[in-house]
Structure formats: structure tokens, C-alpha cells
Amino acid sequence: MPASTRRSSLPITDVVIDDAFWAPRRETVRTATLPQQEHMLRTGGQIEALAHAWKPGDPNEPHVFWESDVAKWIEAASYSLATHPDAALERRVDEVIEALAGAQQEDGYLNTYFTVVRPGERFTDLRDAHELYVAGHLIEAGVAHHAATGKTTLLGIVRRLADLIDREFAPGGAAEGGYDGHEEIELALVKLYRATGERRYLDLAARLIDARGTQPFYFELEAQRRGTPGYFGHVFPDRDAHPQRFREYNQSHLPVREQREVVGHAVRAMYLYSAMADLAQELDDAALRESCERLWDDLTGTKLYVTGGLGADPSIEGFAGPYELPDASGYAETCAAIGLVLWAKRMALLTGEGRYIDVLERALYNAVLSGASADGVCYFYGNPLASDGSVERKEWFGVACCPPNFARLTQSLEYYAYAQGDHEAVVDLFVAGTARFRFDETAVGLRVSTEYPHDGAVRIEIEADAESEFILAVRLPEWARQGAVLRVVGEPLDVGTVLDGGYVRLSRRWSPGDVVELELPMEPRRIWADPRVTSTVGRVALHRGPLVFCLEGVDHDAPLDAISLPRGASFAVARDDALGVDVLVGDGVADEPSGDLYPERPLGRRPIPVRAVPYAAWNNRGRSSMTVWVREAVA
Ligand code: FUB
Ligand code: ZN
């Protein structure tokens, strides 16, 4: 097993994103999404609840994870402040932090539900009641706020909370041997460790991960001690009859190093595996890494939608069996795709392999970006791959985990675009702008120019005061291996000679102004459905670069399921200015009704122009049917 790499993300302030694809979308998040979400959190009661004025009998009882939505909003706003200082937004964030400070108890405890709704019951329902999940999101917010503003207001609050959790989960503490029913705090504690240098936060994360799935099962002991079915008892009334299924639901069925299949609730799984990858890297833990790699292969080999969505079964918001990937009835929660981005980045940092970023890119440009409307104020919770026209984005949800998760991810794209290793500058995503790396005492900048994903030309220029020797590693996506063209300082170079672990790795003494050019082949491509996935047998999905395309009913005068694409038909790229995206146009055929319900002769077919829009851009023109997988007509 190779040792973990020492790669890390660049600090957010060392990256500038300034391109035609991402910059306008992030600006929409900054100017429309963040204010709308703040409004929803204020009018929905999430922020008001922090005053702890709620009393039994009052309306709008605080929900177990309300603070997590507030925390994700603070985190998103903090990333925005890091790149776009905004005194008014900073003041509003400070106000919410003051409310959190007021809600914190003397001993550091911070959780509204267990303070005003169920006082005296702290840490008695770890399986269902989201106490550590909330704490995790608060910790992530505290770290982000500190990195963005340098202030320690929220960081101080979450450190006191983490210290209390450390005491309570230590031997002799009230929750000794316990762990989180909805994983999240583990990855947050790793961030807190990295931000503060306090080793005990890393150790606590490792303790929680190591305790998970050991026997006797903590959640069952806790339920016996409590004597009640727990917060989700009414949602899962058959839980006691199916203990194994519900252990799998929160990935506590086996010690994590023995887990081989991705099971259960998808967001929980992604957050858990992210923390496992973090710890594998921090602790150079080979068994943890092996487990992550096996789980990755299971996910990407049998349970991942072509959009990068995951978690097909709505009844558990989680994974169904291998190849059970129904397109219309699949769930594919936005948060799960976001979780996959978190995990994939960590796997790439851990292993140095670009294949993880290939999957990250698939999820990011498709299943994550579809999570919000073009105007940034309506959201998908589930992201199915086909719709009869009844699915549309909504302004908000009773359980509003996805909207602020979308905001925090898109506002922190800087962390995903590059990585820094030992004398190695890594370009993971093709995003125009700049990045600053530090090799010993030398600062080296990269200026990336590209219209990706609408064009495959990527130009990377070295910006530095002096010559510098380092490796420039540029990811070459798997789909671009055939036909990619590389020029290094004007000289053509066969990519095959420098391809290593999914990256074009160029080791040399670079001079200021040196340029690397990469041309990625951007012809539209087809991907064929696996026949083991029953809902899409015989269908193809159109791709261009990292984008997955879909057909919308609004563009076609035949039912989408009646349309097929002749195998040889090619597609051209056209601009849709209204949607602000490139679309694919080509020729298809549509089955014609014969007049008889059950005709005894083959159906007639008529040519039909086909127009495919990027999956992430669908449902921006009102309600419409949609399909990613289109029937293929083989002559
Ligand atoms: O339970 C917290 C979040 O709410 C989960 O991650 C989502 O699946 C939604 O249920
Ligand atoms: Zn969600």
C-alpha cells in the first residue's frame, strides 16, 4: 500500500475564480441565494429559536437539526466574505454568531432542541437526534468563519462545544463509546484540528470512527437505557424487526475497516467516508485507506448514477442494491452528491490519483449544480434522471439541508480546483483564474485561461518572480485520454509519455511566463446504459466534456420516451443564450401512434429534431418532462 500523499487544498484566499462558467453562478449564490436563505432561516424560526424562548405548547417547535441549516449558511457566507468582502453581510453573520453565543450553555453545550424541547436528555439519542451532526456543522462554520475573517468569535464557541464533547465521549463520560447517528462531526473535527493544531480534536475524530460498528452496538444499548424508540421511532416503526437493515442505515453495522459495500443513508455514508479518508491521510492508516478504496469501487462500480447522483432509494434516502438505479423514481439527494464531492476530493488528496477528481467533476457539474435554479432561489432535494413533468424545484423545504449545502459548496469551489503537494502544483479542475502555491520560500502563481466546459482549450501560465523547479500536475480526465493535445512551452508532447495516476505530470525548472496548453476533445459523446440497470436498458446518455445532457419535453413535440437516437447520428453544439449554456442539437426519430392501441404491424417513425440541454440546467423553463437516458435506435 503506497504511503498517503501530503497533498492539501490551497487556502481559499490563494485561489481566484474568474471564469465565464463559474463566476456568474457564484455571483448568483452571493447576491440571490445567500439573502434568500437568510430570509428563510429568519422567517422559518431557525435563527429566532436560538433565543431559547420557545416553551412547550408554543407553535413552531425547534427541530433537531435547525442549527445545522444556520451553520451551513454561516459557512457559505464566510466563504463568500473570504473572496468578496461585504461589510453588511459580515455584520449579519456576526449577529447570528451572537445569537449562537447566547444559546451556548455555561459548560459549552450548544443545541436548541436539547435545551428547550427535551432538556435533561443530552446525548441519550445519538442515533436519531442529530446532536453531533449539528455540532459538526457548527464546527465547520466556525473554522470557515475564522479562515475568512480572522475572527475567533464562532471558532471560540465551537471549540468550547468540541471540548465538552471530547469530555463526554471520553472514558468515564456520559456518552463513553458513543458516536454519531448522522456522521458529520468526524470530518468537522479534522478541520478543527487542522485549523487549531490541537491534536485532541483529531484523536476524538479517530475515537468516534473507531467506535462505530463495534459490538455491542452502541445505539441499541442507548435505546435500552432510554426505554423509548427514539426520535425517528415513528418514521421507522419496524426498526426492531430489522436490526441489521437499520444498522446499515447509519453505517454502524460493522467496524469501518471491515465495511466493503456502500449501504444505508447516502449523505451519512459520504460524510463518514470523507472523515475516514481524512484520517487515513492524517494517520497514514493503511486499513482505513483500503476500506475507503473498496467502498469507492463499490459505489462507482454499481451504485452511482451517470450524473454523479447517488442514493436511489427514497424510503431511506439511501442506497438500493447493486445496479438498482431507477431513473424516474430515484432519489439522488443534492446533499449526497455534495457529500460525494467532499469524499472524492479527500480520496484524491490521500492517494494522488486523478480518477477521484473525474468522479468529483461528474457530480459537481451535474448532480450538484442541478440542485439550484438558474436564478439561485429554488432547489431540488432529489435529482431524478427522468420526470413525467411533475418534478420541479421548490423555494424551501421543511427539512432544508440541501439549499445551504449547495451554497456552501459552490462558494468554496476554491478548495476543489487545485491541490498542493511537495514541490507539486496540482490542477484538478479547469476553472479560469489564478492560484498561488508555495514551495519552500518561493511563491509561484498559475494563471489558468479557459472557457471550459464549453471549450476544451486550457492555458496555464507560470507567474513567478524567478525560475522555480516543481512538478506541474494537470488532471487529464479519463474521457479525454483519446485526442488530448499537449504543448509545453510551445513544444508538442505526447500525453502518454507524461501521464501518471490520471495527471499529466511535468517536472522541470519553470520560468516566469512559461505556458502549458492542453486541448481536451469536446466532441459530444454517448454513454451506453448497463443492461443490469433495468430502467434504462437500450438507452444512451449524451455527454460533452464533463456535462451530462438531457431532453426536456418543452423542446420536443413527441413524448420523450417515444424518441430514439439513431446509433450513427451525430450532434452539434449550439448556444442557448436564454439558458446561458451550450446545448446539443441533432436528428432523432419518434415512434408514431398507429391508430390502434395494439397494432399488428411495426410502428411508423418520423424524423424529429432533438435538442439536449445540460442536466443541471433543466427545469429552468417551467414544468416539463425530462429524460437523461434516451432510447437508441440500432438500424
Ligand atoms: O438528517 C439530516 C439531513 O436531512 C440528511 O442528511 C438529509 O438526507 C435529510 O434527511
Ligand atoms: Zn439535503
UniProtKB/TrEMBL annotation:
Residues 524-631 form the Non-reducing end beta-L-arabinofuranosidase-like GH127 C-terminal domain. Residues 426-522 form the Non-reducing end beta-L-arabinofuranosidase-like GH127 middle domain. Pfam families: Beta-AFase-like_GH127_cat, Glyco_hydro127C, Glyco_hydro127M. InterPro entries: 6-hairpin_glycosidase_sf, Beta-AFase-like, Beta-AFase-like_GH127_C, Beta-AFase-like_GH127_cat, Beta-AFase-like_GH127_middle. Coiled coil: none annotated. Residues 14-413 form the Non-reducing end beta-L-arabinofuranosidase-like GH127 catalytic domain. GO terms for biological process: carbohydrate metabolic process. This is Glycoside hydrolase family 127 protein. It comes from Diaminobutyricimonas aerilata.
